[in-house]
Structure formats: C-alpha cells, structure tokens
Specification:
- The complex is a heterodimer.
- By secondary structure, chain A is of the alpha+beta class.
- Chain A has 8 helices and 20 strands.
- In chain A, the strands form 4 sheets. Chain A has a 6-stranded mixed β-sheet with strand order 6-7-8-3-9-10, with helices on both faces. Chain A has a 5-stranded mixed barrel with strand order 11-12-13-20-14.
- In chain A, β4 and β5 form a beta hairpin.
- Chain A is elongated and about 75 Å long.
- In chain B, the strands form 2 sheets. In chain B, strands 1-2 form a two-stranded parallel ribbon. In chain B, strands 3-4 form a two-stranded antiparallel ribbon.
- Chain B is globular.
- Chain B has 2 domains: 272 residues, Orthogonal Bundle (MetI-like fold); 280 residues, MetI-like fold, CATH 1.10.3720.10.
- The chains are: A alpha+beta, B mainly alpha.
- Chains A and B meet through β6 of A and α19 and α20 of B.
C-alpha cells in the first residue's frame, strides 16, 4: 500500500486552467472520493494521476516516487474508465489477462490470476464471452477485474457507476468498497453523485472550477460544509442571509429578517461580529412543531406537501420566505394550510457560513 | 501516440506530399505561367482561350461533365431513395448490383458500346430485323454528336454509383422523425421529398456531385477509346510528345487544373458548408414501407433498367471476348475461347497483368502505411496543421489524374530534380508513387472514419495496464479498425488496377505497360485487336469484382462515407 500526494498541481488546456494549484494527500489504503459538478476538474485530476495529462507544474508522488513526468504505461495504476473501454475484439478473459501479458508473467500464472480476479468479481463463468454479450453491470465488473489483476499501486475509478441503473448502482457501490478494502488498495474515485461519496468514502474532496474547496470525511463535509456551494452540492439545504450579532468559541448568533438564530461555525471559516453570514439548515434537521419553541425557530404555515411514502417534503412559508423541510414517518400530511406552526432547528444543526 | 513519433510521421507525410503532390503541380504551373526567359507571363494561358480548337475542347469537357453529372444524379437519387424507403423483392441484391459499375472500367465498357452502337453494330441490326430501318440506311449512332453522347452515357453509367453511395449515406443520416414531423403537419409524398428529404440530403449529394463533375471533366480513357478528340483531356494526351519544348500542353493542363480547383471550391463553398447538423441520432429506425404489386413492379423495374443499362456495355465486352467474328449481327457469329489463348500468348498481356499487380499492390501497401500514420496524426494528436494534412490527403480526389500524370512527367524531365525517376527508362517507382497519391483519399478516409468511431479510451486502457503507446496502437486500435483498413485498401487496390491517366501517360515502354495501357494498345491493332483487348478487359473485371464485393461486405453502408470529401 502506498499513499498518493499531489503538490501544487496546475493543468491548463490552452487558455483554460483546469486545475488551479491543487494539493492533496491520500493515505495508503484509503478510499478517496473526488466530488464536484461537471467541469470542476475532477476527471482532469484523475487522468493526471494516470498520466494521460502532463501537468504544467506541480508534482504527483506515489509513495516517495515522483511520477509527475512518468508515461502512463509505467505508472502501474489500475484505471476503470467511465465507458469501461473493454476491448470488443477480445474475450473477457483476454481483456483481463492483457495487463499481465505486458508484465512478462508466465502463462500459467496469467491464467491463474485472471480467473482469480474474475472470480473475485463473480464473473468467472463469463470468461469466454465477448464484452458486447454482457450486460452493463457485468461489463463494469470485468472492467474492475481488469484494473485489479495487475495489482496496481492505486486504483483509479472514473464515474464507474454512471452507466448502471439505480438498483445496480446501490449494489455495486458497496461491492466496490468491499473489493478495495479486500485488496488493500489506495483508491481514487471520481463521481458527481454525492450519495455514492457519502455512503462509501473514507474521505472526500469537493472540487469546483479547478479548486479543491474542502477535504474531509463524509460526516465532516455534510455536517460542517465550509461554504454555501459545498452545503448545497452535498445534500439539500436552506439558506437564510443575516448579520452576525455575536460570535465566540465556535458558535455565532445571527440576526435575520425572520428573527435571531444561533448556530455553529466551521473551524477555519469563522465569521466575525457585524459580518454578513449565511445560515444553512438541512431539511431533515428542521422540526415542525405546534407549540412555539423558545428560540431558533420560524413562524409560518405549511404551504404544500409532497408525499414519498417513508418521507414527506413540506414547503414551509414564513412571510415571503420558503423553507424545505423533510420528515420521516410524516405527521403533518393533512395539516390545515391556514394554521400557524413553528419550524425549529437545533443550534448544533444550524451552520453559520461566511460565503 | 508519443509526441516525437507523431512529429516524425507528420514530417514524413508532409515531405511525401510536397514531393509528389505539390511539386508536380508546381511544375505544371511553372510551365503554364513562366516563359523561356523565366519571367511570369499570361500569354500561354490567354493563347489557350484564343485557340478555337482548345476552346472547343474546354467547352466540350464542360458540357460532358455537366451532362454526366445530371444523368448520374437522375439515376442515383431515385434508386437510393426507393432502396432506403421501400421494401420490395430482391431489394438487397438490387442494392448491391447497383454498385457493380464502380468496378467495371468505363474505358473497357467503351469497347462494348462501340460493338452495340457502331454502324454495323447490334442496335442497327435489331432495328433492321424489326423492319424500322433497312441496310444502306444504317445510322452511325456514334458519328458526329453521337460520339459525344456515347462518352456521356458511358461516363455516367460508371460514375453514378458514387452518387448512389452518397445518397444512401445521406438518407441513412436523416432522422425518420424529421419526415414524420412533416407528415404529421400534412406534407406527404412527392411534396415531402422535395421540401424535406432532398434539402436534408443536399450537402452529401453535392459533395459527391463535385467529384463526379471533376472526374467527368477530366476523363481520359473513355473519350480516347471512342476516338473523341475534341476534348481537353485527349488534346493534352496528344500534346505529351511535345512536353520537352512546347509550353502549350502545360498551359492546357494549367487551365484544366484551375477549372477543377474552381469547381471544387464552388462545390465546397456553396454547398459543403450547409451541412445540417442532425440534432440527435435517429430516434428510431425508419421502417421500410411495404408496397403493393404496382409499387414492386415500379421499384424493381427502375433498378433493372439502370443496372441493365450499366451492364450492357460490359456484357457486350464479355461477348466480344468470346466471339470469333461479330459483324452485322445481333449475337456473335462464332463462339470461341481462342481470344483468351491469343491474349495470354500475346507478349503484351501476361507482363501487363504482372505489372499492374505489382504497381497496384505496392501502391496499396504504401497507401495503408501512410494512411494509418496520417489517420493517427489527424485523429489522435493535436499537432498544429493536422487539419491541413487532412485536407491535403483528400485533395488528390479533386485534382484530375491527367493533371497529376502530366505533372509527374514534367518533374522527371532531364535536368529536373526528380529526373532519376524518369519513366522512359523504368516507370515502376513513379507509377507506384502516382497510384499511391491518387488513391490515398480512399485509405485515409476509411482509416480516419475507423479511428473516429473507435474511442481513444480503448488505447488509454491498454497504456494504463502497462502497454507502451505504439504497442497499444498496434495491439488494440489497429485490430479494431481492421475492417475499415481492409476496405480502404481493397478500394485503393482495385482503383490502382484500373488506373487510366497515369498508366497511359507514364508507362512508355512495352515491358512496363499496366493492364489499361495494354488494352489501349491492343485496341489499336487492326483485325483481332478488339477481341484480345476484350479478353484482357474481362480478366481485369473479374479481378475487380472480387475485391469490391469484399470491400462492400466489410463496410456495408459505410462505404459511402469514403466518397465524401
């Protein structure tokens, strides 16, 4: 197992700067996610790690080795492409064996390891099929086996699940985590699907416009986003703008046109007294109550209800301001639209953002 | 592909094209515009337009090209349309048969047409039997104006498949929803064809028409065999003997070149830009419409007429090749295989087949090597100027073969830089290069198409697994585009076997004659020359049949893309 380090990496395409001086440290054996909207540079970063893009400046280290200028075929990374890139003129077994053939491994060894890799993704019985005779999920498994079989220094996954249907995606993401941990692989996983990242990442980096905005565990990033962009990109949230009345020791009191609220600040991104601040409230953190709470609440009416079965989404209207609220095991489905209710949020769940 | 290697390939192909495409053309322009003292002059060019004989030749060439293109369009578009839209018996067979004329060398067919339309040919005898005309009043169909129309018909019959393929590819590109939308709004049938379908096909059709126009404008073989001399191409051919001292052949070639470039530019500029981007891939496959009895009869009838007309000249050639004597009768009076024996025994025949095989296959190998390299540089690198390279590789389609042949001859004259290639001694090297340059577009187009359809991630995946870049290209990409390469190579090969202009102009010693020149020479022999030439023609046709059928099986509908510039 080796760690991967990215130091001050800059990548340009013509005048367009795709990566703006990026630094990142990925621990050995970690399942690390690169997350961001399309065009944020996550795939550029992944392809730079694989060696398909040469950076303008900066370094990439695999363990202690500087691989920044190394050609792709000498980096020994196992990459899984978004389109899988299974060669249609080769069988499943030939696809998987290809990487080993490049390493001068003996025939018997190639055969043994190929079958082993196929078995570990439950594709052993399809060894002699051609890729286009496989379903999307099966192709995905073969692509994974092909990347794993060469025992790469790190595994690079480029939106590996984007071509699968919703149900398979759920199944495969835990499968990928199982395999990465079983092979003890340092894995870098690119996706724009925050659910994938939140559910299986050890840590993740959120990118935007070629910059890394935040690095942390899923819990950190979700609970303590450092900006409005991160808060709304990872999960859903409501924002209220206000002025900081008082801030100290990680908490702040903010005055908005809908009243005063206290919440927590994110370490490193604290607001100061008198500054403009944005309050982020996750829909599931807000509780609807009939009785007026002591503080940290909005007064208003339930304007609309969208029922999903296990959960309901409410549109809560307070003055001209609308809040999204969600409730498991919903109780306010048939609530009168004229009756005043209260939306309460615990200070611990309310994040005060600078930007 | 490693950057240094890409630059290397780039340099080689640029040098090759500079030497064997740009340089010969430059030699012609110099001959046309520079006088003996080395100063620029327009006198020679103006002289061409002053000379009534040259002027008539140009007019005839233009009219010939125009008539040929219109006739080809009239044959190709309806056939492509009904083949795309309707289901009728024998649809597939007819579709394939319609392409047959591509591989029938038009200038061999000219022998057949003369047999049919000559004064004592089949048509007059048939009319005589029917009592419409009587002996003594036989019409010379190919006399006077008739000779011109003979050339037009023969050229159109051999060129319409290019337009057929173009039309077919264009039709396949049209999302059926476009037509359904028109139908939904109440526009159907013929009106819909002219207001929706034809405009959508237009850019593809014009690309093909430009090529057909230029090819017909500069056609040498057919007019030569019809003995039709009042046309620029033949005038140039006859002027070649004077290439050493006389500037007028140069001036004439320059004028032809300028006109060709003009037509090409007009075709590209006017119609090439209007390529309607299809917003989406066809949302669903268009279902061919089932037809009733009348529809079936009309569809198959149309195909039968066109294919029949296209095949008659060549059928006649086959008959001629098996006839002992065929004069003043509907069918040959005697059947014999003697012609084949004589043909094989003739000291022109066997060497000419050998020569053609050597020239065409060597040129094809050169083509494929250069073509793969070029395609990789064009599609897979971002080197500056690769767009220009792409355009340059396609240009030989637009520059007439006769012009190129003349340029080669000019650049190999005594005292010039390439005099070591002078064809009067041994034309092998020059012919191989000439064939390769002329047929390059076929190979480059098909290789480029193959690469564009093959995702670069296939190669990246191989590199990622430890395979070096060049090896990845060979182990992964080349097998994936093999069908395209083979098809392009087969086309280049068959076109090389049939090549007329370079062969007639550059092969000057009997020992080095390719098939086409041998046929031309045999035709000139009085008595049984015609029969022996036909036998050799049949040989070459059989040869080509195999290669073209192979290519169309490999590429299917994509074959049409090769002819789009």
């Amino acid at each position: 197992m080796i760690g991967v380090k990215v130091q001050d990496l800059v990548k340009k395409f013509g005048d367009m700067v795709a990566l703006k001086t990026i630094s990142l440290t990925i621990e050995p054996g970690e399942l690390f996610f690169l997350l961001g909207p399309s065009g944020c540079g996550k795939t550029t970063l992944l392809r730079s790690l694989a060696g398909f893009y040469l950076p303008e400046s900066g370094k990439i280290l695999f363990g202690d080795e500087d691989v920044s200028r190394l050609e792709p075929h000498k980096r020994n990374t196992g990459m899984m492409f978004q389109s899988y890139a299974l060669w249609p003129h080769k069988t499943v077994a030939q696809n998987v064996a290809f990487g080993l053939e490049q390493q001068n491994v003996s025939k018997a060894e190639i055969e043994r390891r190929t079958m082993e890799a196929l078995d570990s993704v439950q594709m052993g019985q399809y060894a002699e099929r051609k890729p286009n005779a496989l379903s999307g999920g099966q192709q995905q498994r073969v692509a994974l086996a092909r990347a794993l079989v060469i025992r790469p220094r790190c595994l690079l996954l480029d939106e590996p699940l984007s071509n699968l249907d919703a149900k398979l995606r759920l199944e495969m993401r835990t499968e990928i985590r199982r395999i990465c941990k079983e092979y003890k692989l340092t894995t870098i996983y690119v996706t724009h699907d925050q659910k994938e990242a939140l559910s299986i990442a050890d840590r993740m980096a959120v990118l935007k416009d070629g910059n890394i905005l935040q690095v942390g565990t899923p819990l950190d990033v979700y609970k303590r986003p450092m900006s409005r962009f991160v808060a709304s990109f990872i999960g859903e949230t409501n924002f209220i703008e206000g002025k900081v009345v008082r801030s100290d020791a990680g908490t702040a009191l903010v005055k908005t046109e809908r009243g005063e609220f206290s919440g927590v600040m994110v370490p490193g991104y604290e607001v100061k007294d008198g500054q403009t601040a944005y309050l982020s409230m996750r829909p599931e953190c807000i509780k609807i109550e009939d009785i007026k709470p002591e503080d940290n609440y909005l007064e208003g009416k339930i304007e609309d209800v969208i029922y999903y079965g296990e959960v309901a989404h409410y549109v809560f209207k307070s003055g001209d301001f609308r809040l999204k609220i969600s409730e498991l095991n919903p109780k306010y489905l048939t609530h009168s639209k004229d009756k005043t209710v209260y939306a309460y949020i615990h200070p611990e769940d309310l994040v005060v953002l600078k930007d | 592909m490693p950057r240094n290697f890409a630059y290397f390939i780039y340099a080689i192909t640029v040098v090759f094209f500079l030497c064997f495409f740009v340089w010969p053309i430059w030699q012609i322009l110099k001959g046309g515009f520079v006088d003996a003292d080395g100063s620029v002059t327009f006198a020679y060019i103006l002289e061409v337009f002053d000379n009534p004989i040259y002027l008539e030749g140009l007019q005839n060439a233009f009219t010939l090209a125009l008539c040929t293109t219109i006739l080809s369009l009239l044959m190709a578009v309806p056939l492509a349309f009904i083949n795309d839209r309707f289901a009728f018996p024998g649809k597939k067979v007819f579709g394939a048969m319609a392409l047959l004329p591509i591989m029938l060398p038009p200038f061999v067919g000219a022998i057949g047409i003369q047999q049919i339309l000559g004064q004592y040919g089949v048509l007059n005898v048939v009319l005589d039997h029917l009592g419409i005309i009587s002996q003594g009043h036989y019409i010379d169909w190919l006399g006077g104006e008739g000779r011109f129309w003979g050339v037009v018909v023969m050229s159109a019959l051999s060129l319409y498949p290019i337009l057929y393929l173009n039309a077919q590819a264009s039709l396949a590109n049209i999302d059926p929803a476009m037509e359904e939308a028109a139908e939904n709004l109440g526009c159907t049938g013929v009106r819909r064809f002219f207001s929706i379908t034809l405009p959508l096909m237009r850019s593809g059709l014009f690309a093909g028409s430009t090529i057909v126009f230029i090819w017909a404008f500069t056609e040498l073989g057919v007019p030569l065999l019809f003995d039709y001399n009042r046309i620029t191409s033949v005038q140039i051919f006859n002027g070649i003997k004077d290439i050493g001292g006389n500037p007028f052949p140069y001036a004439l070639v320059t004028v032809m070149l300028l006109f060709s470039v003009l037509f090409y530019a007009v075709g590209k500029g006017l119609f090439g830009r209007q390529n309607f981007a299809m917003m989406a891939k066809a949302s669903h496959a268009g279902e061919p419409k089932q037809l009733g009895l009348v529809g079936n009869v009309i569809c198959t009838g149309l195909f039968c007429i066109v294919i029949g007309m296209a095949l008659i000249p060549h059928l006649a050639v086959v008959l001629v090749s098996f006839s002992g004597d065929w004069y003043h009768s509907i069918l040959p009076q005697h059947w014999t295989t003697l012609n084949y024996e004589i043909a094989l025994a003739h000291n022109l025949t066997v060497p000419s087949i050998q020569n053609s095989l050597i020239y065409a296959s060597a040129a094809t190998v050169l083509n494929v090597l250069l073509g793969i390299c070029l395609a990789f540089v064009i599609v897979r690198t971002e080197l500056p100027g690769r767009g220009l390279l792409d355009a340059m590789a396609m240009l030989p389609l637009a520059v007439p073969g006769l012009v190129m042949a003349f340029g080669y001859l000019a650049m190999c004259q005594e005292g010039k830089a390439f005099s070591f290639l002078n064809p009067t001694e041994n034309p092998t090297a020059l012919l191989i290069i000439a064939y390769a340059v002329r047929k390059m577009p076929f190979v480059v187009r098909s290789a480029v198409a193959g690469l564009q359809q093959t995702s670069v991630t296939y190669e990246e995946a191989a590199q990622n697994l430890g395979c070096p870049p060049l090896k990845s290209a060979f182990k992964i990409t080349i097998p994936l585009i093999m069908a395209n390469l083979l098809a392009g190579a087969l086309l280049a090969f068959s076109q090389g076997m049939l090549e007329v202009s370079d062969s007639l102009v550059l092969a000057q010693k009997q020992a080095y004659y390719p098939i086409t020149k041998a046929i031309y020479e045999l035709m000139a022999i009085l008595g049984d020359g015609r029969f022996i030439a036909s036998a050799l023609g049949v040989w070459s046709m059989a040869f080509l049949a195999v290669t073209i059928i192979g290519a169309s099986i490999l590429l299917g509908k994509k074959l049409g893309a090769i002819f789009r510039v």
